[in-house]
Amino acid sequence: MRSSKNSFPGKRSIGTAGLVVWLLLVGGCNPARQHLDQFNCLYLSGKFQEATQFCADRISDPNKASGDNLLWALQMGSVQRINRNYADSNLWFDRCEELMKTFDPQSRQTDVVGTTLVNDTIIPYRGQIYDGIMVNTYKALNFLALKNFEYARVELNRAMERQARAKDAFNEEIQKEQEKLDKEKSDKKESKTFDYQKTVENEDAQTRIRNAYPDLSEFEAYPDFVNPYSTYLAGIYFLVSGDAGKSRDLLRECAAMMPGNAYVQADSAAAEHFLMEETPCPPTVWVFLENGVGPVKEEFRVDLPLFLLTGKVYYAGIALPKLVERPAATERLTLQIGQDEFATETVADMDRVVKTEFAKEYPWIVTRAVISGGAKAAVQYAILESSNNNNNSGGAIFAAAIMAVYSLATTTADVRIWTALPKNIQVARASMPSDGQVTLRTSQGSLHTLNVGTGKHAIVIVQMITALTEPRIEVLTIP
């Protein structure tokens, strides 16, 4: 007589089913996607107080490098800045810098292990290189608004230092990541179940990904990790504060990137003249337009052939993130001083800044997705093979089905990204008016008259998120 244990093979899978249900709760959802959608709706609607509270509710501990704390601290810093709470904004950006320090290449050695049977969303959001550069840039602007010019200089120097060391830091991280991926692929290969290398390098797999996301290779990248906005802003600040040598180098770099921008070329020439003739830049007003909102990430799925070491090919889906651009708020601004008009020109395309780094990271993202998809497929295959060998098809098929459901539920892409950045930054430049009066006109015809003072120099920052929201305008005077 068979024991009750063997009479009901389904009971043997209860533990497996319970485990899978728990794993589904942990890894089978993507709350970051829903939270970002909600935040974006508030931000684009100009509901900044509600957006502030929403960010606060997402941060479990502003000093702990876990979950999405860094992401929501970045969003909070942006919202506080647009609310003109400059000190609070810098407090949050300070926290962001501290959190970023914990995510160095040495601290990321367990990422692949954690994502193999779940997905990339279980990794704490650790920020991008451009995140750090923009944090220092925004802190500098906040300090200028607070008239703390020395601290503004410090932050601009930090932004430039971050750019300068970014390439070496990124290459180091690539090496660390590659070592992790190689080890993971080697460990899995020893299981005699799945050929990860063959899958990753398979031309059919690469073609499917390129066809699903052709835009990634069809854009003009900036030089490695250079943010022209940060570089240009630093160059202007050092120009008007008397550091001609540093200003000349930074503005020359900008001029090389933007040969068609007359304002950048004029500032580069002014820096050269200052350095050679010791003639300071005459009183000038710069108007920067932070236009629209930067890209978001969306998920797309693609079927890939996953090569089993037995020679069989198992098709499974993987989920990958895709950058999706969002609209500008206006085509340009026009700066009017008396009878003279100056239309803004693009000084930095943040979509390109984000894409440049994203394209460099993409091979990692694909490889991790293939490893994760392969691991899940291999488990299903191993269960069914074991079933065939042990003549226990009922329980094994049930367990394989549970694993298939789990695989489908946990195949999701990491779509976390700092969404409060602008789409592009434009600039106009003119001599300081004697009466301090300037008028700004949007492409939609909206007029904004303001007094920039009669001091030596002024920087006007216009944040225009959508065509339907009121622009936020701040005047930063520099003695």
Describe the protein.
This protein has one domain: Serine Threonine Protein Phosphatase 5, Tetratricopeptide repeat (Alpha Horseshoe), CATH 1.25.40. 53% of the residues lie in helices and 17% in strands. The chain contains 16 helices and 11 strands. The protein has a 5-stranded mixed sheet. The chain has a 4-stranded antiparallel sheet with strand order 5-4-8-9, with no helix packed on it. A two-stranded antiparallel ribbon has the order 2-3. Helix 5 packs antiparallel against helix 6 and helix 8 (129-145) packs antiparallel against helix 9 (149-189). The longest helix has 41 residues, at 149-189. It is elongated, with a radius of gyration of 27 Å. The N and C termini lie far apart (96 Å). Residues 1-14 and 105-110 have low confidence and may be disordered.
Give a quick account of the main beta sheet: strands, pairing sense, barrel closure.
Answer: 5 strands, mixed
How far apart the termini lie comes to: 96 Å
Q: What radius of gyration results from the CA coordinates?
A: 27 Å
CATH architecture: Alpha Horseshoe
Count of distinct strands: 11
**CATH topology term:** Serine Threonine Protein Phosphatase 5, Tetratricopeptide repeat
Strand-residue proportion: 15-25%
Strand order of the largest sheet: 6-7-1-10-11
This entry's quaternary arrangement is: single chain
How is this fold's topology laid out?
Layout: H1 4-7, H2 14-27, H3 31-44, H4 48-58, H5 69-82, H6 86-101, H7 111-115, H8 129-145, H9 149-189, H10 196-201, H11 203-212, H12 228-240, H13 244-257, H14 262-277, E1 284-291, E2 296-307, E3 313-324, E4 333-337, E5 340-343, E6 345-349, H15 350-390, H16 393-410, E7 424-431, E8 437-442, E9 447-451, E10 457-464, E11 472-478
Parallel strand pairs: 1-10
Antiparallel strand pairs: 1-7, 2-3, 4-5, 4-8, 6-7, 8-9, 10-11
Helix pairs in contact: 2-16, 3-4, 4-5, 5-6, 6-8, 8-9, 9-12, 9-15, 12-13, 13-14, 15-16
